[in-house]
Prior knowledge:
Elements: H1 4-10, H2 21-29, H3 34-47, H4 59-71, H5 75-82, H6 90-105, H7 110-125, H8 135-149, H9 153-162, H10 178-192, H11 196-208, H12 214-228, H13 234-254, E1 262-263, E2 268-271, E3 276-278, E4 286-292, H14 297-301, H15 303-312, E5 318-324, H16 329-339, E6 344-347, H17 352-356, E7 364-368, E8 373-379, H18 385-402
Amino acid sequence: MKRLVLFLVLISPYVYGQQSPKEIAKKFNALVEVEEEERFYNELVAKYPAGSAKPGQYDHYRAQLAIDWLAKGDIDKYHFYKKTNPKFSAIQLFELSNLLESWVDNDQHIAWVQQISKQILAEVRLKKHDDTFSRSGVLLEINALANARLGNLAVAMENIKKSGKNTVFRKIPYFRNSDANYLNRLGLILLAAGQAQQALDTLSNAVRTATSTPHTIASLKTAYQKVKGSQAGMDKYIDSLKEEAYQKIVKEVAAGWIKNAKPIPDVPLTDMDGKLIKLSDYKGKIVVIDFWSTSCKPCVAAFPAFKRILELYNSEPFQLFVINEGENPQIVKPFMQKKGYQFDILFDQEEAIFKALGALGTPQKFIIDAKGNVTQTGIGYAGSDDKEFYKLKAMIELTKSKS
Length: 403
């Protein structure tokens, strides 16, 4: 669904004969490999060349190909499609910035990150791309850290300061790790600038408040050693910060316990293969269900924490289902393949169990105890990988303690 609306707007129905724009868009969106996307695009253009009346007819295809080739590490292909000057949609700019975030945070392809983020920022200022999601602030953070890693400290400090003026979504728990990523990048830039104590304070507070990720922990260790001169006491210090964050969330979760728990509704769902599944058949296990859709950014933002939860409870009687609302396997399967997530997925296309539970929206999770009773619910995304992980862990542990 991520590019469907944009394609529907931009492609005229008559161009494809008997195929509607929706059908063409679905076919393109269902492709997993960029090589398949490129083949599809080339065949489309060969059969239906863009007319002079609509020279930008295939802009969104070329923009997506640029991003997907870059994700595969092919900078030449990226430049090939980028030189056609396609306009990135809001979703495409989001995808591109996510890719650059991953690279800069993992200290990969730093020269590419610095150059691409600089170019895209300049183009966003000229309104060449759709910045509905305010990604210019994130791109400034990315460019700042890339420059810090390259030794360009003046530019790094200037851009990380500027990034604070473009923070529409930073404090809102909507996109994954918005505030946590900023604090980690700020800490690393402060370290590079020789301000180790300020970096230590910034990163410590991030971990203490669970505005953190595994990257934050790694950066905090570096800052600690820089300030203290050794690793002595480091693990104990960091563990105390993490425990402080977790215990605060434990108290918040305890307040939401459902005293008059009711059995999970006996509603049939379907899995990816169309097999009927009933949650009431999972008595004896603690079950977590989470309502989601591919177009729901905070839903997908929670997935890394779910992966950690599955690893933590791998040897216990535990089950986690992500229940898709309003979509089908033809949409969900390629989406999950591209994202690299392997969860047990159920489909509630008629919103039967969603309505039976009185769910309010996506994402929303429910905890079912070993007796089959719904004991807790949580709405929304917690805001960071660590906070989402701590919250779900606290909900599971509370259910275990009361079972």
